[in-house]
Amino acid sequence: MSKNKYFDIHAPVFYPAAFIILTTILLSFFFSDSIVEVFSAFQKGASDNMGWFFIIATNIFVIASLYFAFSKSGNIRLGGDDAKPEFSTFSWFAMLFSAGIGIGLLFYGVAEPIYHFSNPPWHSDNAAENAQKAMLYTFLHWGMHGWGPYVIIGLALAYFTFNKNLPLTVRSLFYPLIGDKIYKWPGNSIDVLAVVATLFGLATTLGLGVQQVAAGLDYLFGIPNTTQTHIILIGLITLAATTSVVAGLEKGVRFLSVINMRLALVFLLLVLILGPTTHLLDGFIQNVGHYFNNLLTAGTWAETYTGGEWQNDWTIFYWAWWISWSPFVGIFIARVSKGRTVREFVLGVLLVPSMLIFLWMSVFGGAAIFMEMNGIGNIAEAVNADLSTSLFVFLEEFPLSSITSFIGIVLVTIFFVTSSDSGSLVVDSITSGGKLDAPVGQRIFWALMEGAVAAALLFAGGLKALQSVVISAGLPFAILLLIVIYSLNQAFRADLDAKRRRALEKERKEYIRYVKNIIQSEDNEDQ
Amino acid sequence: MKINNILISLDLSGFDHSVVDYTLFFAAKAAEKPHLVLFHNIRYDFLDDSLGLEPDETKKLKETIEANIRTEYKKKITQTGLTYEIQVKEDNSTAQSLLRSKNEKYVDLIIMGQKKPPYGAGILPQKILTLDQDRTPVLLVPVGLTPKIDKMLAPIDLSPATTKILNWVTLLSEQLQTQSEGIYVYQLPMTYFPYFSTSDDELEANLKRKAEKRIEAFMRKNAVKPKENWPITVKKGANITAVILKHLEKHPADLVILGRIGRTSLLGNQLGGIARRVMAARTATPLLIV
Q: Residues with Cβ < 8 Å from A393, sequence gap 6 or more?
């Protein structure tokens, strides 16, 4: 392992990962279409034939998470019995959001409910039923089933890192299976794959973010929405992310996450107050109730008798997307969760974000559907034409639309920065052999690399190619996650059993000694 | 409220002396002397072949243990003028056996040692507290303690359990002539809401005032009061258990009286979260869980 003031590299991971990333960028310049074709075919094949597997797997993730929370394992504290949480509960929630799904919320908040409402797969002419089901499936895609994979990977990594002193990298997940081989080539290969998957995953999501910011700028200020604008935006945002990453987790990432969370709440309140408030609040309550009531039905719905491609395009796509992101988000969540109990961790990562997302979707999606049903705006048309402008078309129907749209752009931008900086911290951690705080030089390198990958892909048109690569990774990762659940359960049980058995054994030995003494003393008295 | 019968759970370890000494100190001060039940259940599950007992010796084990308990504690107990009896059981489940004896003897208080790893698993108190449908108060005595009750601490949450706690505080204050203090922990909404910062003194003062008013209203409604101007410390904190333990560390008390089930118990007879966590912290202070 080479180490100096600026770099602390775990060479067997750093160099192959850097090589693969650079080569892929080059290839995507020349063979973008072929890559898209190959991986799209794989993705389609996986969705067509393995949809049932994704559905059952996501349900297992949720059930396993709840089991860990409410069984005795829930009392295990990450980092040992005396560990104290590093961040306040609010900062913790803020970071969970910012790392994982902030951009997605803004991208799909308006678009998804309205899309399901206007293109329902359940063939109904009843607008009320369509609206209810549109919200149900949006909740399904963004609720507990989505966060389940994050819980599993995050929990396993936090436990193996803080309680078992293994490095904070994906290889540690395999410790119960391959033992010390995680420190040799099999472990290195796993980490190389994790770095590549994380960086490409980030680059593609950042690509989405840039498109939305550019669409917003075009919509608001008439700045042409061209590749050149995209690349300038990536440059600026990468600069901000680099600054944040250099400042570190405490000053940079946490600070930005908290600011953004507050801004997001202001944005949410603005839309709630300026929009049909009572209707939205009614909707929130009704949607949440409907979601929990239909959790089993919707969660196991497999489009069996109706046929069609809707579920592959949406539900299965989402499951693959959440799962393929789980190593990155999982490592980040693990990094910030030391000192939480398993119960706090699961409920914090599974339920709280889900409820906040439900509120978000009920406000943005609910308002959009309200407008559509009452003929106030034509958001459905805008969504069908271009998803990235949907938020701004929606906001135009509100008073103070220039202010709210501007807040929207700022939010996407900061979520972009926080996704990028948390991603860099994760990649830093993996390429330095699982260290929690990598040197500054390395942080800058990976933050810049991310920007470079996103820019190169946008320029070469390889974004779609990479997206299909990342989503294709969902299937193998889903299998991995199931193995992780098994090994984590074994580890928790062994931990609890060992503690209990040690104490019981001691008690047993002592008891035998006391009884022996009593018998002996009675015998002596008899004599 | 009276304490007529006290059950002392013995495990034959050296720690039994601490538990008996504490009970005698406690019981001797009572206005009406309680009757003591010295209880032990033989752990046949622990006794393997290594003991080398012949079959007829196993049969005699019960009498041997009973005789030993009598020898150990008879003198101590009779000196205090208390009456006692010994119950040695041979049950598969110690917890169930103890609860049966408790019912047979109309026990008002169970006293047991609180072992902590590595001295023992400490599972029995948890089981008793969870299984006992009558919610008989349990006093947990840490090992090697010199009996002394000069000051008591009573964490309250203004739930129905608080009334029970206050009854016990009143009873023990009168009988043992000790000081007592209440502690009420209020939670700040800023933990969950970002627009209140922790430095918002005005908000904090406001919340504290409201908490004090709630306590006043509760005390007014409640007929039982420990005494006029009973001191109650009002503290803020997100983690109630941590606040209680920190307070105990700074202002040591000789007995902590805790409610068995708090405000938010959804699980019926299960042990409440605060009591469970304070027990798990294994403080050096005896805990009376009512």
A: A219, A377, A379, A382, A383
